[in-house]
Write a structure and sequence with these properties.
The structure holds 2 protein chains of 2 kinds. By secondary structure, chain A is mainly beta. Chain A is built from 1 helix and 17 strands. In chain A, the strands form 4 sheets. Chain A has a 5-stranded mixed β-sheet, with no helix packed on it. Chain B is globular, with a radius of gyration of 23 Å. The chains are: A mainly beta, B mainly alpha. Chain B: It is a multi-pass membrane protein.
Chain lengths: 291, 505
């Protein structure tokens, strides 16, 4: 029995302009890393009848060995249609374990069309619409244990803001949403009315709401003449080729009395201190004169 | 109150109410230095609100800093005229008004004016008088007092940063500005503590006898000489003399331009102006540099906290060291050494690899930064004497204003051109080592010249026949020493005679 553990997982990815994915962190190493996989070449997208195709390769190196069952997951974030090749590749050292069983599954369905080379098993996917998103997993069966490596193809996630944005009655508030690195096709803003989410139409209420797309990746919602009713949750939704994603922001509308109270308290305190200091000075001068 | 009615022993108190004054100066100086940096937390929100770029917002801090330093001479003139207390209280009120009006701003231009100019001017009226009044209350323990007062800057920064974050989370930027306006009114409290005191020494001769062992004699005799200089005599004597002066002397009464002939002052001015070119840029770029070499945001911010904490401890410690009998007579050398040490830190920074290296750098940088800041005003006081310090600090700050503002942008340009932070560190380090070396050499020359003049003065004083020839001798000396403006010469000689009779204790 060899002393090395069952798998070294290294994921290598290549990027083209503006496409997947930085969610792919460089692997969880179960053991000492195997040799870097630089032998795989990056293949340029060939022209197909799919627009905005990008080609990315993700790989898993599996030196076959007997070990406990493990599974690992990775996210692939796609903002537009892409053609992906996913492959499970055996580390050359252990290529004697040809009796390995490798299956690729989409969710729970087995994928039949697997391209097999001497020590790799791969599938090719064309992710053209949201129906193709989901999990794809490669399961390696060696001895009696399984090693599963899953990829989740998903749309980019929009981060909202944790802390509420504070503004005042009668003032203007600007809510910002950003999609890091990915360019959505369109942005929509929603406000919450009770439990419903209502889209904000800025042409209808032009003096109240102004939606401005500041740059490719950011959007601003300007709400003017704030009232207490504008307080609440807002959603910014980014539409991508493959689906939509929402981020939540909170707006808090305060009346001007709220900061005024601490302000007056602190002013009163400062005035008191000044008076105390000056009175003490007068008092000590009088004491000196008497002495 | 006239000097005679001060019931204390002649000479600065060096304690007693002086420590309350130090506390007031601590607060004032703390606000003046820390406030422009502290409000940077609000910039992202304000930037989104007004829809401007980051550089347009950053101008607010630059204008504030520029006004705080640039309004130095005005501050000095006002202190010369009215004394420290009214100026600081007015400054505090101005800061408060500035920030409160900023809370109601509707454009970025209004922010420039309210936060930048008005508050900046208010802070200028806080900074200079605080430093000046320390010189009036302390002589023997002045370096300690200076070190403690200057420690206000890092302490305030460490307090303001989380406070501003808290205010922002609860009140948004408008509410925060309102409340900060109220907080700045505490500068008025600091001002109330600045009880007016007579001239630094009521009689120049007594300290020589009492404290001559501890204080370098050249400094005391300098004070004595300047005490008899009419431009710095307390108010009640001015009205007598005003009739006999021309316009140059009137200007000099408010702002002593004759300082530009003072050798020590010029040395200090050139050295410091050079130093400030490389002083602030590393702080501004430390966090971005850390992020650039792959450190996460919180650890990068923590580096600045380490810097501030070390700074906080270094300043009073430096004050104590500078006050010791070995260092005090040679304080200029200590100052030059700290500047060069600071420069050396920056030069070595590019060699720091990884987070540990940067932590070590931050510690040494904090130490060096604290040392320089603690002695920044102390050395100026040491060179020109407490009496002329009022004008000196104003003139120095307006000159430093330009290089302070130029430093970070030049560093930024270097970073953008070469794409590498190390050239910025090398530039800052080189400039500061150069400034330190310059100050060291020139102060060595200055000390020797002062020793020589001291010897010559003693020789003349002992020779009674030379009183008349003193005029000529002094006129010759003035080209070298240039401690007093030549236009004051004839008047001063008359006054000298009068004063010796009046003060003759």
């Amino acid at each position: 029995q060899l002393s090395e553990p069952i798998a070294t997982i290294q994921a290598v990815n290549w990027k083209t302009q503006g496409s997947p994915s930085d969610h792919l962190t460089i692997g969880h190493n179960l053991s000492t890393p195997g040799p870097d996989l630089t032998t795989q070449e990056f293949k340029q997208a060939t022209k197909e009848n799919v627009s905005n195709v990008t080609f990315v390769e993700y790989e898993v190196l599996l030196p076959g060995e007997c070990a406990p069952s493990t599974s690992m997951e990775k996210n692939i974030t796609l903002d537009s249609a892409a053609r992906i090749e996913l492959s499970c590749k055996l580390d050359n050292k252990h290529s004697y374990l040809k009796s390995l069983q490798v299956t690729w599954k989409r969710g729970n369905e087995t994928i039949s069309h697997i391209t097999k080379t001497e020590n790799s098993w791969s599938i090719q996917l064309s992710i053209l619409d949201s129906s193709k998103l989901g999990s794809y997993s490669c399961t390696l069966k060696a001895c009696t244990s399984y090693l599963t490596f899953s990829y989740f193809a998903l749309v980019p996630k929009i981060e909202g803001k944790e802390k509420p944005i504070i503004s005042y009655e009668g003032d203007t508030a600007v809510l910002t949403c950003e999609s890091s690195g990915y360019t959505p096709i369109a942005w929509t803003w929603y406000m919450t009315n009770g439990t419903e989410q209502i889209a904000i139409n800025d042409s209808l209420l032009a003096d109240k709401y102004v939606i401005n797309r500041k740059s490719a990746n950011t959007t601003h919602l300007k709400i003017q003449k704030l009232t207490k009713e504008d307080d609440g949750a807002y959603w910014c939704e980014a539409a991508f080729e493959l689906g939509k994603s929402k981020g939540k922001l909170k707006l808090k509308v305060l009346s001007f009395m709220v900061p005024l109270k601490p302000f007056l308290a602190i002013v009163a305190e400062a005035v008191t201190l000044v008076t105390v200091v000056l009175l003490y000075e007068i008092y000590s001068k009088k004491k000196e004169k008497r002495a | 109150p006239s000097p005679a009615s001060v019931g204390r022993a002649p000479g600065p108190p060096d304690g007693g109410w002086g420590w309350a004054v130090v506390f007031g100066a601590f607060i004032s100086i703390g606000f003046a230095y820390a406030f422009p940096k502290g409000i940077a937390i609000f910039y992202k929100e304000i930037q989104d609100f007004f829809g401007t770029s980051y550089s347009e917002i950053a101008w607010v801090s630059s204008i504030m800093l520029a006004t705080t330093y640039g309004a130095g001479p005005i501050s000095s003139i006002l202190v010369n005229r009215y004394g420290s207390r009214p100026v600081v209280i007015f400054g505090g009120l101005l800061c408060g008004v500035g920030m409160v009006s900023a809370a109601f701003c509707t454009s970025i231009l209004q922010l420039y004016i309210c936060v930048g100019f008005v508050t900046g001017f208010g802070l200028a009226l806080n900074l200079q008088p605080s430093v000046i009044i320390i010189g009036k209350y302390f002589l023997k323990r002045r370096p300690i007092a200076n070190g403690l007062a200057m420690a206000g800057s890092p302490v305030m920064l460490c307090t303001l940063a989380p406070l501003n974050q808290f205010l922002f989370d609860n009140f948004g930027w408008r509410g925060s500005f309102l409340i900060l306006g109220a907080i700045l009114l505490h500068c008025c409290v600091a001002g109330a503590l600045f009880r007016p005191i007579g001239a630094a020494t009521a009689s120049g001769k007594t300290p020589t006898i009492e404290e001559g062992k501890e204080i370098p004699k050249e400094e005391v005799t300098k004070d004595a000489m300047e005490m008899s200089n009419p431009t710095n005599v307390p108010m009640e004597n001015k009205t007598e003399e005003e009739g006999g002066k021309d316009c140059c002397e009137k200007i000099n009464q408010y702002l002593d331009f004759s300082l530009f002939k003072h050798r020590g002052f010029l040395i200090y001015l050139i050295g410091n102006v050079l130093m400030f070119l490389g002083f602030f840029a590393p702080i501004v770029f430390l966090a971005p540099y850390a992020k650039h070499i792959g450190i996460d945001e919180y650890s990068a911010a923590f580096l600045l906290s380490i810097l501030a904490i070390v700074d906080m401890i270094a300043r009073p410690t430096t004050g104590i060291i500078a006050n010791s009998k070995w260092v005090r007579p040679r304080i200029q050398y200590f100052f030059s050494f700290s500047i060069a040490f600071n420069g050396a830190c920056h030069l070595l920074c590019p060699l720091a690899s990884g987070y540990t290296g940067l932590v070590v750098y931050s510690i040494f940088f904090g130490l060096a930064f604290g040392m320089v800041c603690a002695m920044l005003f102390e050395t100026l006081m040491d060179l020109v004497g407490a009496a002329r310090f009022t004008s000196a600090v104003g003139l120095v700050t307006i000159a430093e204003c330009c290089t302070i503002l130029l430093g970070p942008p030049i560093g930024g340009t270097l970073i953008d051109t070469f794409g590498d932070y190390k050239y910025m560190f090398i530039k800052c380090g080189a400039v500061m080592v150069l400034a330190g070396t310059f100050l060291f050499i020139m102060n060595y020359y200055n000390y020797r010249m002062l020793a020589k003049e001291e010897k010559e003065r003693k020789a003349k004083e002992e020779d009674p026949k030379s009183v008349r020839t003193e005029n000529e001798g002094r006129n010759n000396w003035n080209k070298e020493t240039a401690q007093d403006g030549p236009e004051l010469e004839p008047l001063r000689e008359e006054q000298e005679g009068l004063k010796k009779e009046v003060n003759g204790t």
